[in-house]
């Protein structure tokens, strides 16, 4: 399921292992994006600072973000590991980290859902062909119930507190960045992690819970924009469109539509992995966007899921249009400028650099060799 949304990594190196973990984390979140959108729309419309404030309907916000969304993630993670039985125990176990928590337990659900399903799988493998005929349903139901109960207790007493401690530490780190006016430096960590397909884990596991807390107090939060800003990716793709190797320019327009309007950021990650120096463009664009968001006191009322410009429109507060879109456009412009420079404004696509031949250079050299051979034969 994870590979439906992210490329299947190959190899056994550190990068491949990190990508593999990121793909599984993305696979737990992406199938439930519709639920995130539903919650985001309810939040944007009906909270006190929303477009159509409604106190009664706003009561849906907290249960959905604190219970429904984590349970869906835990259910999906469990299903990825051990089909329906894994999904059931994953959902039950997730309730353990949800109950008593004051913050949305997305990260806790990503941990305990697959873990409970894996233990269920180990148990099923152990007793396979050992249960007497007629007792299969009894053993299946009671084993799932007992394991679900034990994992729910473990989640409530062990995993939940650990995740809360981690979230508090992350919040303190972000607060430190805010207090010292250096939050744009967060892009130095966020953008490279995104390219390793850890974007959903970063956003929904760390930044969104922090943003939910901040939005509950202030009505909006900059946390929702640190990872989801579509500007840096747009700038990178535009740089490829105008100055990238010719074989890639034709793919850039479709990628831009999918990334900027569809919100699927994964589409531009391979473009950076092909030329790792392009990560500097994404970092520069991301840092620029964050700086403008801070300077204009911009924020969104809920996570823009997925991170498309349309989702930004839906989650922008009534008085926050200038700061939000100034940041998005500026981050795209800076990312495009830096990316264009890193691509040599098209020159590096045709010339040998550092003893290597770029894709277009190889094609040009091959064409020249073929022409020389034909000239020799006719001569």
From TrEMBL:
Cross-referenced InterPro entries: PTS_EIIC, PTS_EIIC_2, PTS_IIC_mtl, Sugar_PTS
Keyword Membrane (UniProt): yes
Localisation: Cell membrane
Region (Disordered): 352-379
Keyword Transcription listed: no
Ranges annotated as biased composition (Basic and acidic residues): 365-379
Pfam families in UniProt: PTS_EIIC
Domain of life: Bacteria
Domain PTS EIIC type-2: 21-351
Keyword annotations from UniProtKB, A to Z: Cell membrane, Membrane, Phosphoprotein, Phosphotransferase system, Sugar transport, Transferase, Transmembrane, Transmembrane helix, Transport
PROSITE patterns the UniProt entry points to: PTS_EIIC_TYPE_2 (PS51104)
Coiled coil (UniProt feature): none
Record membrane topology: Multi-pass membrane protein
TM segment ranges: 21-47, 105-123, 135-156, 250-271, 278-302, 322-345
PANTHER family the UniProt entry points to: MANNITOL PERMEASE IIC COMPONENT (PTHR30181), PTS SYSTEM MANNITOL-SPECIFIC EIICBA COMPONENT (PTHR30181:SF2)
Free-text function comment from the UniProt entry: The phosphoenolpyruvate-dependent sugar phosphotransferase system (sugar PTS), a major carbohydrate active transport system, catalyzes the phosphorylation of incoming sugar substrates concomitantly with their translocation across the cell membrane. The enzyme II CmtAB PTS system is involved in D-mannitol transport.
Protein name: PTS mannitol transporter subunit IICB
Protein species of origin: Actinomadura alba
